[in-house]
Hints:
Layout: E1 9-13, H1 20-34, E2 41-45, H2 51-58, E3 63-67, H3 84-89, E4 94-97, H4 100-106, H5 110-122, E5 126-131, H6 135-139, H7 143-154, E6 167-170, H8 184-202, H9 204-207, E7 211-215, H10 223-227, E8 234-237, H11 244-258
Parallel strand pairs: 1-2, 1-8, 2-3, 3-4, 4-5, 5-6, 6-7, 7-8
The structure holds phosphoenolpyruvate.
Amino acid sequence: MSQSSRKYLIAGNWKMNKTSEEAKELAAEVVAEVGQQTSVSVVVCPPFTALETVASQIANSNVHLGAQNLYPAPSGAFTGEVSPEMLRSLFAGFVILGHSERREYFGETDAFVNKKVIASLEANLRPILCVGESLEQRESGETTAVVSEQLEGGLADVAADSADQVVIAYEPIWAIGTGKTATPEMAQETHAAIRAVLIELFGASTAEKIRILYGGSMKPGNAPDLLAQPDIDGGLIGGASLKARDFAGIVEAAAAQDS
Length: 259
Ligand code: PEP
């Protein structure tokens, strides 16, 4: 990365798509496209049901595995839930937490997301903590206040010495799956505000190490301008991560920033 020592991270959020068999195929295509490059950290986050097959497909490549959620307890009577340790045992290294779809459809609060962040760090899983504002909040000038509250709530009690394991994803809700992207300048402004909150929480040297991804209709075409911004350290990719060539195009755009 030209502006700092942070290595770009491009993560694919496959959401509730792909059977195990389909996921195996997509993972193989991703490995064929970007599995050997080392300049960008690449993560794929399939549904729970495909973690195992994707783990074997990406073994011996530079593609890493992530999950889309966890439950913040080691084991027990939590029907339908999956623990951090279960994810680790399938070689997941990352987990998406607090995605706006989970906040909206499953009522996840900052306090609950915080429990998940703490549990993931304790299990050596790197949380990708999602924050972002709605269109109404942006239009009424509340963007910085909203993301600051989500960060302070979601990162409460995270120790400064483990904070550099955290990844933040700024995802304006109005840009997710809509084809509308924040302009690079709009995104940079919020990423800089996020960095300022991280400095307050953890100090400047730790905050400088934390990667802040942009998410919201990122595609190979708009990725170069977004990734050129000084505080945009990668992308959390939904729709475009379901096509290996599009996903690879975004990884290549990140790699090209360094050259
Ligand atoms: C997402 O939901 O994390 C996302 C960024 O989706 P999309 O790329 O489809 O907007």
